[in-house]
């Protein structure tokens, strides 16, 4: 995906494939007033919150480090081509050979965001500039041809000498390095390693964008799921309020129950307003990347966290992640710069050839001259030694930075792995609590309405507990998916996993 997005940044202005703005939201169900003479049926909603993720599967997953040699140019970018996925319908299990619909949707969004992201475009230009720097340094190995002109308007000395001196001249000269102790080779190495660092920084920026887009989409899916549960809870409170209005018309002594129901209804309405505000914020974040060009609604959210690498595999791939490759390339560039600086302190030999085209008063011209020139900077105020020492210190700093980042990423992967397992276990526990709470709320309602053995406050508390457990189950499930995305991103394998 990295190479695909890099070249498509040059063709994005001609692209007309846009996606749409927001996820479709189901309208609120119409409110039905319950009859005060009948017991309103309580819908068993325990089966609606089966959101526990399937067990995490592991497979032999190995990141292949791109071969970037310091003696060759980086590969040319390729245009973005979206993979044509076969249409899939239903919720049947999808074979591993096919991409899940939701994963395909997320991949398309990431590619679209990358094509218009200013940070990605800036790094694309930096990468192109680095390629030109390589070509400029390589050009120093070729003959350097110069043309010069001189005029002699005034001369002080013997007239005889003046006759033998040209009044002006046009010269053509060329020089080519023959031996420089590897100075140009090290300079080319430095430029190529710096280009590799830019490419790694580009990959790092794209990884960050992919995680931000994917995690925000999952966050929006979570908020929409919670919104549906909150609306169902609000509808239930409204049903109880309508029922108690009918009861109070007959028995004014039960007005306190109506007050309690109205209070819970107001709380339910506040919950709906809060989640609507969170959805608006998340959609505004998505608009930052896509604007008004997302015309396709998101597919139904389903389990898509398949083929997740194990902790050992993820830790093993940290050394090939973009941040580590960037620091490694910087270290190699600084090492090449140090070697180049050392070579500059030694003598270098150039082959020089020149030709003048003017003639003196006797018609004699200057012939072709060829020879060798020696350059050696004997003393420069110890600046050369200082440059070598500075380059060595910077190279050592880059090495320590690489070790520190590798240790930090490894630690974060271990934390994420434990968090994924904890959230999965928490989701399972809230699933069980939701089923038990659904049974309890039905029992409390029957005992209050038919037998009078429960207070109405017990009924309201059981309804509130049922709502809370459902929300916690949904939150744990989606937070687990976001943590899994972060786990893939920190291991450097998010884009490969999406492909």
Strand order of the largest sheet: 1-2-3-4
Give helix and strand order, one letter per element, not per position: HHHEHEHHHHEEHHH
Please give the number of β-strands: 4
Q: What overall form do the CA principal axes indicate?
A: elongated
Unreliable spans are 9-99
Largest sheet: 4 strands, antiparallel
Helix content: 55-70%
The average pLDDT score comes to 77
Q: Give me the Rg, rounded.
A: 36 Å
Q: How many helical stretches?
A: 11
| Oligomeric state | single chain
Beta-strand proportion: 5-15%
Terminal residue distance: 7 Å
**Global structural class:** alpha+beta
Attribute tags:
alpha+beta; 4 strands; 499 residues; four-stranded antiparallel sheet
Task: Explain the overall architecture.
This protein has 499 residues and is α+β, with helices and mostly antiparallel strands. It is built from 11 helices and 4 strands. The chain has helices spanning 2-11, 101-116, 118-138, 159-163, 183-250, 255-290, 311-316, 322-344, 383-451, 456-490, 494-498, and strands at residues 144-151, 168-179, 348-356, 369-375. A 4-stranded antiparallel beta sheet has the order 1-2-3-4, with no helix packed on it. Helix 5 (183-250) packs antiparallel against helix 8 (322-344) and helix 8 runs antiparallel to helix 9 (383-451). It is elongated. The termini are close together. Residues 9-99 have low confidence and may be disordered.
